Outer membrane protein beta-barrel domain-containing protein (Candidatus Cryptobacteroides merdavium), 240 residues
Amino acid sequence: MKKIFVMLVLAAAFSASARSQTLRIGNTEIEMGKKDSLRVNPDEASFTADFKPYIHVLPYVSASFPIRTGNGLMPATYWQSYNLDIGFRFLYRAVRRWSVGGTIRASVYSYETDGLAAGGQITGNPVTGDLKAERLIYGPVGLEFNNRIHLTPKINFDLSLYGEYGQLSFYTKTTGTDGSKVISNWSDSSIMNRWQAGVQFSFMWSYLSVYARYRITDMFRKDFAMDEPSRLFVGLAFEF
């Protein structure tokens, strides 16, 4: 019984000492390190005196929505339009406060349009029948050139330039005479610019960022009389 009591006392002492990081046995003290203290966050370590350059490879996903700015925009239901990205970001932390790198990503820009099918601007002839939905979709592969300023171990600011290459398609969904759903699509490279480019600003806390992306090129060719879709997208991105 006495041995069991001694073991319980030692166990309690060890538990308490683990919380205080000091184990006392008689007149002897042993410093204990918490497991978490052995983990090193490279972003936090980069702000110490022992900084060394390193490379980050970061998978990421993002979602954003177009913002209506100004007049002369393509008629669309903007709250039902969106942009989605998935890709990998490669960053070289050259100095304490600055990283440089690139991103490769696959994207989709989807606009729910209003009146393009009935007007026939893209299809050539007005779409007739019971129209249920119409959507303009641009699906590019993109590259980014990233500049990241590290304000604190967790707070960063990004300024990026991007270029994209993809195909623009127009989809409609109508109801046939027999009541069935009919999905049609049109894709004409002669009316649009497959190469797009723009700039992106991001404010990041830890692995979550709020960003704004602005397209500086025209989606449609100058000789095609068509209003441009929104150039500005605002959304959230997450790096793993």
In short: The helical segments are 2-20, 42-45, 116-119.
